[in-house]
Design goal:
CATH class of the largest domain: Mainly Alpha
Radius of gyration: 23 Å
Strand order of the largest sheet: 1-3-2
Structural class: mainly alpha
Strand content: under 5%
CATH architecture of the largest domain: Orthogonal Bundle
Number of helices: 22
Number of strands: 3
Order of helices and strands: HHHHHHHHHHEEEHHHHHHHHHHHH
Bound molecules: zinc ion
Helix content: 55-70%
CATH topology of the largest domain: Neurolysin, domain 3
């Protein structure tokens, strides 16, 4: 505790106003949260299997402490006092912080403790049931937990409150993507869906006509230690700061920003998956660069040092993974880098054109996380629509598999024969996360829209990427997105950075150009 206290006092404000005291308190809360995050990271990367029970106890204790601190009436009192302090009424930074602290505090205190506990219990039991159901391909085993999850989430939404003219689902979505609503999502997703379904068909026709490029360059077998070296080299060049972060291996890649100077990302490797390792590595490094670009130094613990929404966070990972890392310009630079690491013989026969095409193939897949840039969003729209209907009560949980499978058949031409590759594939609902899925597609939409706007500000961006210089790109997102934390809402941030509200147009233009470059259609 003594080191945490000294870290906190070292850069905490020295004043004694309610606002100053509030920022000290928030900083302490964030330090405690970072302890839990460090333990979670360790759990996924280093912990021996038999440490699981102790780790669960440690994390449960910490999460209870966190909850107590986040709902502490003293925090509420200081917040109320600071909101009425005329001395900071004209300070835009303080006012934005207070607005967001109020939001967090209200969200944390609106839910009765009994409901929070019930949700926690349901997710821990539900996750176990889901794992079992998925392994045995037995939806009926998970159904009672799914029903319970949606019932509890409806109660949660009622407690959080429905925005005027909105629906229950909005209250849930708002916890992941503040300010977003189901109606607005529908407006944005609608045109994207109408565009995507025929585009997939066009690609399938090209494939049937024998016009599909080969996947071989992307699945060449290469040593895993070299894959790690390659991915590290690329992400370092992009701007992930390895003096303030590290990349380790885990089953599911993730990014965990601990706090100032410490951001952990993980990646996974397979002998024939060097392009997969590259895309998940650049993806997580994108999340990591956002974390590293937030003003955590002086504002650690304050909302203005936090990411604004899951959609914006995802836009930062998608941009490096897709707009940068799947472009032809990128491969012009990265292929010679790869040759230097893997050796000319190992990459024999692979050229810029062939590796660019191989890493951009469109292939309908049952599994969301294995899907390409084009079909991925169809998976998300399906989940968004079905969970919205289940919250509304228009779709009974027991009817989920049938509706799911029908839609996959219609959209992707695939016949789901087992629920484990259908509606049992994702962990989200078992964890109680309802209203989350759409943020993945928001990430794709935001990244395409930011990328277009950035292109106007950096006219020679392509040449820079070809020479492995990513500094202007990182500088642009630092300036327009990272430095603001939660100062502006995601929607405002988009408007300020691109001059327009979020729209599906830039993503559609981007995907159309990509498919044309790869398939010539
Ligand atoms: Zn991500």
């Amino acid at each position: 505790m003594s080191s945490a206290t000294s870290a906190q006092t070292a850069s905490a404000p020295s004043g004694s106003s309610a606002y100053d005291k509030l920022t000290v308190l928030l900083r302490e809360n964030e330090i405690l949260k970072s302890v839990a995050n460090t333990l979670s990271w360790d759990q996924e990367t280093m912990m021996p299997e038999q440490g699981a029970a102790l780790r669960a106890d440690q994390l449960t204790l910490l999460s209870g402490m966190n909850h107590d601190r986040n709902t502490d009436p003293r925090l509420g009192d200081l917040l109320g006092e600071a909101e009425n302090d005329s001395a900071i009424a004209d300070d835009p930074i303080a006012q934005a912080n207070l607005r967001e602290v109020r939001r967090d505090y209200d969200l944390a205190t609106k839910l009765p403790k009994s409901l929070v506990e019930e949700l926690t219990r349901c997710s821990s039991m539900g996750m176990r049931a889901w794992k079992d159901a998925r392994a045995k391909n037995d939806f009926a085993k998970f159904l009672p937990w799914l029903e319970k999850t949606f019932e509890l989430n409806r109660r949660k939404a009622e407690c959080l409150g429905v925005p005027e003219g909105g629906e229950l689902y909005d209250a849930l979505m708002d916890t992941f993507e503040p300010g977003m609503t189901a109606k607005r999502t529908e407006e944005i997703f609608g045109p994207l869906r109408e565009f995507t379904v025929p585009l997939v068909q066009k690609v399938m026709d090209a494939k049937a006509a024998g016009k599909a490029p080969s996947v071989d360059p992307a699945v060449r077998e290469l040593p895993i230690d070299k894959q790690i070296e390659f991915t590290t080299r690329i992400t370092e060049a992009m701007g992930f700061d390895y003096d303030a972060g590290r990349m380790d291996a885990s089953t599911h890649p993730f990014c965990q920003g601990m706090g100032p100077g410490d951001c952990r990302i993980t990646n996974r490797y397979r002998a024939n998956g060097w392009c997969d390792a590259l895309s998940s590595g650049t993806h997580e490094a994108g999340h990591g660069m956002y974390e590293q670009g937030l003003p955590k130094g002086e504002r650690f613990g304050q909302p203005l040092a936090e990411s604004v929404s899951l959609g914006i966070h995802e836009s930062q990972s998608r941009m490096w993974e897709n707009q940068v890392g799947r472009s032809q310009a990128f491969w012009k630079w990265a292929l010679p880098v790869a040759r230097g690491i893997f050796g000319d013989t190992a990459l024999e026969g692979i050229g810029v054109e062939s590796i660019f095409k191989a890493s951009n193939l469109v292939e309908p897949n049952f599994i969301r996380v294995e899907s390409d840039e084009v079909t991925y969003n169809l998976h998300i729209m399906l989940r968004f629509e079905l969970e919205r209907a289940m919250i509304k009560g228009n779709l009974a949980c027991k009817d989920l598999p049938g509706v799911w499978n029908e839609r996959i058949k219609n959209d992707l031409g695939l016949t789901v024969t087992e629920d484990r590759i259908g509606c049992l594939q994702d962990i989200h609902w078992s964890m109680g996360a309802v209203g989350y899925f759409a943020t993945y597609t928001f990430g794709n939409l935001y990244s395409a829209q930011f990328w277009e706007a950035m292109g106007k500000d950096i006219p020679n961006r392509e040449q820079q990427v070809e020479s492995g210089d990513f500094s202007s790109i990182l500088g642009w997102v630092r300036e327009h997105i990272h430095q603001h934390g939660r100062r502006f809402s995601a929607g405002e941030l988009c408007q300020r950075a691109t001059g327009k509200p979020l729209s599906s147009e830039p993503l559609m233009r981007y995907l159309e150009a990509k498919v044309h470059a790869v398939y010539g259609v």
